[in-house]
Please model this.
Amino acid sequence: MLSRGVISAIAPAQGLTTTQRALVGAVFNAMTGYSAILDPEPIDPEQFAEALAARTIEFRTRIVQMMVLGALVLRPIPAEVTAKVGGFAAELLVDESMLEVAQRFAEGSLGLAAFDFERNGYTATWTEADTRALHTSRSLSSAWELDVNDAALAVQWAELEQFPPGTLGRRVTEFYRARGFVYPGMVGSAPPLLAQHDWVHVLADFGTSVESELEVFAFIARANDDMHAFSLLAMVVSLFETGYLASGAGLFESSPGHLSEAGMAVRLADAMRRGALCEGSIDYLRLDWFEIADRPVSWARNLFGVTPKSADAVRLGSVGPWEPGGISPFQVRAGSALAETQGRAYDSFGAVPISSG
Model:
């Protein structure tokens, strides 16, 4: 029934695209344990809503989000697809803000769509109080704002280097030094909010290729029971698959075509599964990581209920930050340059580009 509903909503007139088929198949398998029926009998929104009448609004919202995700991998998005998804959402009594983004994309209104990400997505609920988790010396006027002249913040990050080996904080500094990343608070650093996701790379064992960024944001989005978090996954798909967004999160730039690569649908779906299995609802971007930075990574994984990757995801190329393929050649060069500037020997802590593996 779920296969019928999702595919009836997202299929263009000529049928599912290759990427849609891979994505729907992988997500259904990872999230339900059952295989999707990829060529089902169509179902209309009223019949589908009747079949899901006993389901909670949270469940129905997740199904609509799957429909939106299936639409967002299309370029162009046919207007009839967003209309169909809208019809299913209405019958399911689901108000999904990222549907409006998909509609903007279908209309070619890319600038308005980018605005809608901020107005209706994850950062729409960002408050001044949330800034405290970032440890900035001042309140930020917007969630993805840079903070490149904050000496106290930079010192706090640098002090993590003194923690014992294997602790979360120490591992994050090794993650930064291997790649030549600049600590928040310094010129050249990422927005402090985006730096929050770097801790998740270490916690959930994801490298730093573009493909790994898709995985880590799928994990973050699904671990959070606030439905606005889905916009984080919608954002990276729009950056790294279709290129509808030219930039995002204050730093990322468009690099299309990565989700449609072989095996990526399975890797993304497994990251969603692992996020869903985390204990309770966890907003990893609002978490005060410094409070647990002195604890072992294994302790943190146990605290949050982070489960291992599936064998299929690993087989298809999902790697951690310390493995072959877990770092890019550009990041190795940047890390080497940073080490030279700081007068120390370069150490990638085991990570090598896949071409050097």
In short: The mean pLDDT is 96. The CA atoms of residues 239 and 252 lie 8 Å apart. The first strand starts at residue 247 and ends at 248.
